Amino acid sequence: MLIKKSKKLLIIILSMLAIVSMGVFACYRVPELQMKASQALTWFRVALNPVDALPTAEVKSKREPIFWLPDLVSVEADFTGRANNVISKQVTPNMPSTMTLATITFNPQRDYQDWNNCGPATLALGLRYWGWQGDQFTISEAIRPKRQDKNVNIEELAAYVNGSADGLQAEVRIGGDLTLLEALIAAGYPVIIEESFKLEKSAWPGDDLWAGHYILLTGYDNQSQYFTAQDSYHGPDRQLTYADVADAWEAFNHVYLVIFPTGDLQKVQQLLAEDWPLEANLEWTAAALRDQVLSEPANAYAWFNLGSSLNALQQYDAALLAFDNARALGLPSRMLRYQFGPLSAAYQTGDAKDLTRLADYALQITPDSEEALLWKGWAYELAGDHLSAINLFNLALQANPGNQVAKKALETVRP
Questions:
Q1: 63 to each of 66, 78, 102, how far by Cα in Å?
Q2: d(C-alpha 170, C-alpha 334), whole Å
Q3: Which distant-in-sequence residues (6+ apart) come within 8 Å of 185 by Cβ?
Q4: Is 56 exposed, middle or buried (0-12, 13-18, 19+ CB in 10 A)?
Q5: 44 and 178 share one domain
Q6: Is 40 in the same domain as 137?
Q7: Is residue 243 part of a domain?
Q8: Which run of H or E residues covers position 170?
Q9: Rg from Cα positions in the chain
């Protein structure tokens, strides 16, 4: 009896999936229906194959104890306040206690983000501050040609500015703090940050509702402890407390993007000070995070950020240890939709098995993730399966035909 009921339920589910699939095909060129169909498919797909927690690393005897960390800098310094203590009420001398930059008019018809398009939408707002003519679709056509693409990395946003916005330059750094945000805004530069975002509706049964999101900061009030943000999802001139910004920002290693006229290069260099040289920015941030994980050993984001910073410094063994601890403490299910440090560290240390596990998990969450498809391909390449690697690289290129990394991978790997 139970077997018959199970078969009946399976037939019903498969029939519903077939109907939804036909709907997707029929409405491929109807954006709103395309979005709804994709959401329905995601719900049924995960209902049939439930999402577990992000897999933890397998214990290997060759790995050092989890709290081992290298000496990251050779000079003595007090790193308090650079990463873990990002809420600061100190104001740089001669910096106004409040500042609101003149912003372009928020047009509801074009400035609220399209589906999965918060990156291009936020960048468009930032560029138009400097007189750029265009909107989110101008950008997404270049860097995100398919609406199903659910992630645009902050480096892709910067690359668009540096390659397509005449007279403007964009720089990305990590390890920012609230005082630096104030200083940049006070000097006339809006700042894009990436932060945690709580979804309003579950995408699948048991969804933890965590996602990533970009906002553009255009003002602050140090007395009241509020930032003013232009938000492509919630709308213009949002008032966000310093505490909320600091908390949401942590999951993305306090990354920030600043756009400025090329003639202002020296001014921005002076504002960023020791954070202007990229290598120094990475080293100082990693050192601050080292202190943070020692004082907050249960902070999964701090460990993840340390892994990301060490990974960027090409200290892959140490990065792997930090990522392992973050995974053991628990991370949001969509973490590997936006950040791929654990996969990079697994690849660089030759761990094809763990790289495969991580890529498979990322693809379970986001099946058309070009980044996860690429890393799955590199896992095959590590294992010596060149044909499967090439197939995955081609799938990544199909997900985003403009992906230069996928093109280079196809040029590198031979059957």
A1: 8, 29, 53
A2: 27
A3: 99, 101, 191, 217, 218, 219, 220
A4: middle
A5: no
A6: no
A7: yes
A8: strand 168-173
A9: 22
Closest CA to 196 of 214, 184, 173: 214
pTM: 0.86
Residue type, 38: S
21 in a domain, yes or no?
Answer: yes
The domain that contains 176 carries what CATH number? 3.90.70.10
Put residue 235 in one of left, alpha, beta given phi > 0 → left and psi -120 to 50 → alpha: left
| The three-state (H, E, C) secondary structure of 205-244, written as one string | CCCCCEEEEEEEEEEEECCCCEEEEEECCCEEEEEEEHHH
Amino acid at 308: S
* Of 245, 279, 313, the domain-final residue: 279
Determine the structural domain holding residue 43 and report its residue range: 2-48
pLDDT tens, N- to C-terminus, the chain (415 residues): 545 556 556 555 655 655 555 555 544 455 667 667 777 777 768 777 888 889 898 865 444 444 445 444 333 333 333 434 444 434 456 789 999 998 778 999 899 999 899 999 999 999 999 999 999 999 999 999 998 899 999 999 999 999 999 999 999 999 999 999 999 999 999 999 999 999 999 999 999 999 999 999 999 999 999 999 999 999 999 999 999 999 999 999 999 999 999 999 999 999 999 999 999 999 999 999 999 999 999 999 999 999 999 999 999 999 999 999 999 999 999 999 999 999 999 999 999 999 999 999 999 999 999 999 999 999 999 999 999 999 999 999 999 999 999 999 999 998 7
The answer to the question of residue 184 being in a domain is yes
